[in-house]
Each structure stands twice: as C-alpha cells, then as structure tokens.
Amino acid sequence: METRSNHVLVGVAVLALLAALLVFTVWLARVSGGSEKEYDVFFKQAVDGIAKGSSVTFSGVPSGQVKEIALWRNDPQFVRVRISVKEETPILQGTTATIEGVGFTGVSQIQLDGAIKGAPPITDLGPGGVPVIPTKPGALGELLNSAPKLLERLTTLTERLTELLGDKNQASIAGILANVERLSDALADRGPEIAATLAQTRIAIQQAGDAAEEIGKLAGTSNALIANDAKPLLAELRRTVKAAGQSMETLDTTIKQAQPGVRAFSNQTIPEAGLLIRDLREMAESLNAVAERVNHGGAGSLVGSRKLPDYKGPKK
Questions:
Q1: pLDDT bucket at 201, cuts 50 / 70 / 90
Q2: Is the pLDDT of residue 266 over 70?
Q3: What is the C-alpha separation between 121 and 93, in angstroms, rounded?
Q4: Angle of helix 167-189 relative to helix 191-228, nearest 10 degrees?
Q5: CB within 8 A of 32, min separation 6: which ones?
Q6: CA–CA distance from 293 to each of 32, 61, 279, 300 (Å)?
Q7: Whole-angstrom distance between the N-terminal and C-terminal Cα of the chain?
C-alpha cells in the first residue's frame, strides 16, 4: 500500500514539473515574441543564398533573421520572405530591403537601409497579415537581371566582329593599310618641300600681320583726319543747308503770295491778249492788201477803180 502511494506522489510531482516547464516555455516564447516584429518582403528576383535562419541586417548591424521563405500563391513571380527583427530596429518609411552576398561563400543575407529620419514606422498590413517592406534591387540582383541582355549584346558584338573580319573586309583593310603606307612614303619623300612650304607660309602670315598693323595705323590716321579736318567742313555744310532751307521757305512764301495775280493773269489778261493778236493779224492782212494794190496800180488805185483797156474791132 505504501509503495503504491509513493508511485502516485512521484507521478504527481513529475506532472507538476512538466506543467511548470510548459508554462515557462510559453512565457519565454511570449517574451521573446514580444521583443521582435515580423515583416514580409516580396522579391521579384532570384533569392539564391537566402534560407530559413539567414541573417537580416540594418545598415550592416545584425537585427534579425529569416523566419519563412516561399513562393507567393497569388503571383508565382514573387518570393515571399518573412523576417523577424528586433523591436528597437527603426523600420521607418523609406526603408528598403535588398539581397547581398556574404563574401565568396555563396551565402546571402537581407540588408535593410534607407530609413528617413523623423518618418513614421511602416505599419500598413500586407496580404500576409504583417507590414510589408519594399524591395530595392541590389548589385548582385541587378547583375543577374541584366545578365541575359549582356549575353545577347555580347553575341551580337561577336557576330559583327566576325562579319567585319571576313575575307573580303580583310582584303579591303589590307589595301587601305598599303595605301596609307604609300602615302607615308610619299610624305617622307616630300619632307623638304613641305618644310619649305611651311616656312613660306610662316613668312606670309608674318607679312599679313605687318600689313594688318599698317592698316590699323592708317585707320587711326584717317580717324584723326576726319576728327580734325572734317569738322570745319561739316560745320560749313551745316550752315549752307540751313541757308538753303531758309531760301526755300522764302521762295515758298513768295509763290503763295503771287498765286492770286497769276490766277487773274491766266483768267483775264491772256484772253484779251489773244483778241489783240487776232486784230493785229487782221490789220496786217489789210495793210498787205493795200501795199499790193499800190505796187500794181500805183497810188491812184487807192482812189478809183482801174481803167479797162480800149477795145478795137477787127480791121475791114
């Protein structure tokens, strides 16, 4: 009977210890969970080197670890990585996540940075029920993403180089090099002539400079002549123009005053002069007729009529 009682007491004590251990574990989990925050990061690139338990750093300072990594069901192009970081880590607006390699081991980590001072923390819940940290392509990610384009460009460049270095183009390049060599030899043979030409060109340039200097001096002399000798002539010309202007004004005034007399002369004197000229013409014609009569008939023709000759009949 006593042995059974001892076994019961031992069983109760063991159960009590197990319960206490379970309560302590739950409390420890709550305490540890309360000091960390979880975030989701959606990467649209390969996450090679990232696994559950990988390190999460903020500006290079270890701040947490990867809790879960899986494809996102709504869009398989994205990889959802859930991370947990320390509660005091400043996950503020502007914070971004990138994947960075650690040395040459092939292991990668998630790097957080870019938090803006004074900005509010990231609290908007994402589709996974926790806040989402936006991503930024890292150096390795950009290199991997641009690798296909880089290979395509290298392939195109290789093809063009192959076409450029074909047999036909090689022959053309050889001809060009031969022509260049002949031109170089010709220039080398003409070296003394080219040197003499350059010397003559230098002399011509010097002479042109001297001529330009002389032209400058002549221009200065001309300016001095115009400034000193032409001033009196310009003043005299100005006075002459002024006097001519005054004369024109006087002539204009005289013409305006003579306009009434000219108008009367045109309307009255000219018609009367016309009548006088007509009378004088008629009188001249009459005098001309009288003169002719005197010439033919003498002065008596002016008094009586001209006598007719006597008529004599025929002889019997």
A1: confident
A2: no
A3: 6
A4: 70
A5: none
A6: 170, 157, 21, 9
A7: 242
Token code pair at residue 10: 């031992």
Give, as one character, the DSSP assignment of residue 268.
I
The string of pLDDT tens digits covering residues 68-113 is 998 888 888 899 999 999 988 888 888 899 888 776 666 788 889 8
pLDDT at residue 12 greater than cutoff 90: no
Q: How far is CA 66 from its chain centroid?
A: 52
Q: Among 138, 71, 135, 79, which Cα is nearest to 108's?
A: 138
How big is the CA angle at 67 (ends 61 and 71), to the nearest 5 degrees?
Answer: 120
What was the pLDDT predicted at 222?
Answer: 64
pLDDT at 308 over 50: no
Total length of the chain: 316
pLDDT of residue 157: 83
Q: Which residues pair with 83 in a beta bridge?
A: 39, 66
Cα–Cα dist 248/221, whole Å = 39
Question: Who has greater pLDDT, 268 or 81?
Answer: 81
C-alpha distance from residue 113 to each of 85, 132, 134, 149, 265 (Å): 13, 14, 11, 29, 114
- DSSP labels, 100-132: EEETTTTEEEEEEE-PPTTPPB---B-TTSSBB
pTM of the model: 0.39
* Tokens at 112, concatenated: 């957080």
Q: How far is CA 72 from CA 68, 75, 78, 134, in A?
A: 12, 6, 6, 15
